[in-house]
Amino acid sequence: MSSIPLSPTNIEPAPDTQDLPNGAETTATPTRKRRTGLTIMLIVIALGTLLFAQLALGTTMEQDGQALQTQAAGLAATLTATPTVDPEEAALFKELQDIRAQAEALGNLQGTFTAAYVNWPAVMATLGGYDPNQMMLTALAQNGSSIQIQGRANSEAVVMLYADALRGTSLFSRVTVQTISIRNYPTPTSAPDAATMVATGTLEVRKYAEFSVLVDLKGQSQ
């Protein structure tokens, strides 16, 4: 038996794993499979962790929302609930309201009495405070808080002075001269020479002013 000498040219190199056909078993195949499996496992773990974090966050937010709703419902119930009132305090408050109502009613009544009070002696003295040689009153009529005055005066000027004197007092809120009419005194027909005196102009025809004045009374404090 003859031996074949070994030489570098006679040694064939190991086949490259990249040049091997699909399905060929190599020494690198188990390592690659382990790496791929590890990568997939890490991805699954990461996704699981993220999903767990989202679930935990959602649960926490739901719990917080329920707690806030419960707190809000409690506050609403507290605000809408009728507070408990002490019976003694309620009785005192009602008594205070009654006293205030009575005081207000008395105040209004006092104001009514004050406004309706008229100092009649002063009013009558003022209405009669005229010169009887210049004028006279013929009628007085009261209607509520108003007094109608009728009279006669020697002239229209006397009537206006009388109205101004009434306005100068604090007894009347308004003084109105309604009418002034100039009248002639009746001519005496009993005198035997009256017709002759009228015809000759020696009989002086006297005139007077008939007037009507309306005054409104003003309430006075006692």
- The first-level CATH class of the domain at 120-187 and 200-217 is given as Alpha Beta
Under CATH, the homologous superfamily of the domain at 120-187 and 200-217 reads General secretion pathway protein M, EpsM
Tell me roughly what share of residues is in helical segments: 40-55%
- Topology pattern, helix = H, strand = E: HHHEEHEHE
Structural class: alpha+beta
Report the β-strand fraction as a percent range.
15-25%
Low-pLDDT segments, ≥5 res: 6-11, 14-20
Major sheet details: 4 strands, antiparallel
CATH fold topology of the domain at 120-187 and 200-217: Gyrase A, domain 2
User: N-to-C terminal Cα separation, in Å?
Assistant: 167 Å
Question: Mean pLDDT score, rounded?
Answer: 76
Describe the model.
The chain is an alpha+beta fold and 222 residues long. It has a domain at 120-187 and 200-217: Gyrase A, domain 2 (2-Layer Sandwich). 49% of the residues lie in helices and 18% in strands. It contains 5 helices and 4 strands. It has helices spanning 29-80, 87-116, 120-127, 156-167, 194-200, and strands at 135-143, 146-153, 172-184, 207-217. The chain has a 4-stranded antiparallel sheet with strand order 1-2-4-3, with helices on one face. β1 and β2 form a beta hairpin. The termini are far apart. Residues 6-11 and 14-20 have low confidence and may be disordered.
